[in-house]
């Protein structure tokens, strides 16, 4: 199994198809409130060396994320900022408007990555055209999708000008979807995980405890390392500085191929979030 990139430290990156460097470890902000909680989480993460912050208009905390970035004192150019267009805003004109509103809430002049949050039937192609336009206008450095299964990607790729650069999916040992990863790799679509800990449910299982003991690491650290060694970008969500700190302590060990295969073998197809083929928001 080949690593897609050398895994070095917290600021290491995978290279997207267009040459943009995407830090392979980031901070997720799902369910972090828009008040001081998300501001402190973002500032704390950036102080620790994180350079990738993921939010979405649906999280209702873009203002707080933007404030945290501004107050961190870290140069904007050093931070990879991601947000997503929500389902209700999909369509060409409405996506352009939603993008401007997200940028305004974040207090930024451009985005590093903009994603379609879910594949809304009958709308995601028009939404994608809006993303292509924004990319061509240089308002976004990279464009991608989230929660797109293989058939969604194939449908989009039939008549898009630009193939998505990223696909952000639910990904953890019980939902590996290796066929989808292989399809993305073959088409130079960077795979990225949301909910790498199954929204905390992974810690209720004993399956990774032996590996944690073997490597002298926490289960969370084992899973994040597995993400990176599989060439998957990870954005663990936390507002607790001790966890945000612990999540980056993954650069002083390497999982064996045998242990990566073991984690892959735990696949059951179990989701902690909605099914991309059956969601209704």
From TrEMBL:
UniProt-recorded name of the protein: Aldo/keto reductase
Residues annotated for substrate binding in this entry: 117
InterPro entries linked: AKR, AKR5G, Aldo/ket_reductase_CS, NAD(P)_OxRdtase_dom_sf, NADP_OxRdtase_dom
Highest rank taxon of the organism: Bacteria
Site positions (Lowers pKa of active site Tyr): 84
GO MF annotation terms: oxidoreductase activity, acting on the CH-OH group of donors, NAD or NADP as acceptor
Any matching Pfam family: Aldo_ket_red
Organism in which the protein naturally occurs: Maribacter orientalis
The family this protein is said to belong to: Belongs to the aldo/keto reductase family.
The keyword Nucleotide-binding appears for this protein: no
Keyword Oxidoreductase belongs to the record: yes
Active site: 59
Location of the NADP-dependent oxidoreductase domain: 25-266
């Amino acid at each position: 199994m080949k690593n897609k990139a050398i895994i070095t430290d917290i600021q290491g990156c995978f290279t997207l198809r267009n040459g943009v460097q995407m830090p392979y470890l980031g901070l997720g902000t799902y369910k972090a409130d828009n008040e001081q909680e998300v501001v402190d989480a973002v500032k704390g993460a950036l102080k620790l060396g994180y350079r990738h912050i993921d939010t979405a208009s649906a999280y209702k905390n873009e203002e707080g994320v933007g404030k945290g970035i501004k107050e961190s004192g870290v140069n904007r150019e050093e931070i990879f900022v991601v947000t997503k267009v929500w389902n209700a805003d999909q369509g060409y004109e409405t996506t352009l408007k939603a993008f401007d509103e997200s940028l305004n809430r974040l207090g930024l002049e451009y985005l590093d990555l903009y994603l379609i949050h879910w594949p809304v039937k009958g709308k995601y192609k028009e939404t994608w055209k809006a993303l292509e336009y924004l990319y061509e206008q240089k308002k976004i450095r990279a464009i991608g999708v989230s929660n797109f299964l293989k058939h969604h990607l194939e449908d989009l790729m039939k008549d898009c000008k630009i193939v998505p650069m990223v696909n952000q999916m639910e990904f953890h040992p019980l939902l590996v979807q290796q066929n989808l990863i292989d399809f993305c790799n073959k088409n130079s679509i960077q795979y990225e995980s949301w909910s790498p800990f199954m929204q905390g449910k992974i810690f209720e299982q004993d399956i990774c405890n032996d590996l944690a003991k073997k490597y002298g690491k926490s289960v969370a650290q084992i899973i994040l390392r597995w993400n990176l060694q599989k060439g998957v970008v990870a954005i663990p969500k936390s507002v607790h500085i001790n966890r945000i700190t612990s999540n980056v302590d993954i650069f002083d060990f390497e999982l064996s191929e045998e242990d990566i295969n073991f984690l892959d073998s735990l696949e059951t197809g179990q989701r902690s979030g909605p099914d991309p083929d059956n969601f209704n928001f």
